[in-house]
Write a structure and sequence with these properties.
The chain is an alpha+beta fold. It is built from four helices and three strands; from the N terminus they run ααααβββ.
């Protein structure tokens, strides 16, 4: 009787080990996917904060009376963005340092002046709105590049 009980315990133990061999890899894979999703969600929040900071600088620049700023600054996107010391990228360097350490980068697309309907009318009195898109890119947890874009409309209020 004692031998039979030992055999039953051994058989139960072997069944449990085989069941764990099937369950543990699936559970580990699920946990890795959950961790990757969480990392992407956290980085999406970071990208949103970074894009918002950039957008706030652009909005402030649109209404600024400082030389080389204001709505006229957007007529030459390359100069507005990349002029050493005074371009948006240079002015964002302190704010963006922490994001750049995490391999975040941004692009700004500045559109042509449009009217209230979102299309150019040819009338300088109506075409006072400039569409601007801020796009922040970052590496996803699964190796692909992810991006987040914010669209702005800035208007010449003068």
């Amino acid at each position: 009787m004692h031998q039979r009980r030992r055999a039953t315990i051994l058989l139960e133990t072997m069944i449990a080990i085989v069941m764990l061999a099937f369950v543990v890899p699936a559970t580990v894979a699920w946990m890795q996917d959950a961790a990757a999703d969480r990392a992407d969600a956290v980085n999406s929040l970071r990208a949103s904060a970074y894009a918002t900071a950039i957008a706030e600088h652009i909005i402030a620049d649109a209404v600024s009376t400082a030389p080389a700023l204001g709505m006229d600054a957007f007529t030459d996107p390359t100069a507005y963005l990349d002029t050493p010391d005074t371009g948006l990228r240079a002015r964002m360097s302190a704010t963006g340092a922490a994001y750049q350490m995490l391999n975040f980068n941004f692009d700004v697309a500045i559109g042509s002046l449009v009217g209230p309907e979102g299309v150019a009318t040819g009338d300088p009195q109506l075409d006072v709105i400039r569409p601007i898109t801020v796009t922040v890119r970052f590496a996803g947890a699964r190796g692909r590049t992810l991006s987040l874009a914010i669209n702005l409309l800035v208007a010449d209020t003068q």
